[in-house]
Amino acid sequence: MEVMDAPYRAGDLLHGYQAVADNLPNDPRLHQEKGSKKIFFKNFGDARVNYVILPVARKLMTPEQAAKVTGDGYLAGSLMHGSRTIWDRHTRRQNGQAGRYQ
User: Fold this and answer.
1) What 3-state DSSP class applies to 78?
2) Which of the pair, 2 or 58, is modelled with greater confidence?
3) pTM more than 0.70
4) CA distance 72 to 78
5) Can you tell me the distance from the alpha carbon of 77 to that of 71, in angstroms, rounded to the nearest whole number?
6) How many CB atoms lie within 10 A of CB 88?
7) Residue 61 · residue 69 · CB < 8 Å
């Protein structure tokens, strides 16, 4: 796992929903043979916090609750989600075989 800034995006990361994390490579066969790397894009996470999460929190929460919403909390939640995804991929069983995460 790595937390980094993404100065430029191309390929699958450029179009549509702008993800704050990715699990590379995308090919499940390569995941099985070589493993994978979970990357968290801090600058995209920070942008999501500043331009989406904080404004929504200020509208929907009391000021005391909204004051507790932070970028560090969002990053921690994203890291925990990524860890759970990796754990699930390696521990899920189906018919006695390790299951493939989808």
Assistant:
1) helix
2) 58
3) no
4) 10
5) 10
6) 11
7) yes
Per the CB < 8 A criterion, the answer to whether 41 and 19 are in contact is yes
What are the φ/ψ torsions at residue 35 (nearest 5 degrees)?
Answer: 95, -175
Tokens of 25: 């490579």
The alpha carbon of 28 is separated from its chain's Cα centroid by a whole number of angstroms, namely 18
Per-residue pLDDT at 61 exceeds 80 = yes
Q: How far apart are CA 88 and CA 92, in angstroms?
A: 6
User: Residue 27 has which token pair?
Assistant: 């090919």
Q: According to DSSP H, which parts of 1-102 are helical?
A: 28-34, 42-48, 54-60, 63-66, 71-91
Rounded to whole angstroms, the Cα distance separating 12 from 27 reads 12
Print burial letters for 41-61: b (CB count within 10 Å at least 16), e (below 16): beebbeebbeeebbeebeeee
Determine the longest span between alpha carbons in the chain, in angstroms: 50
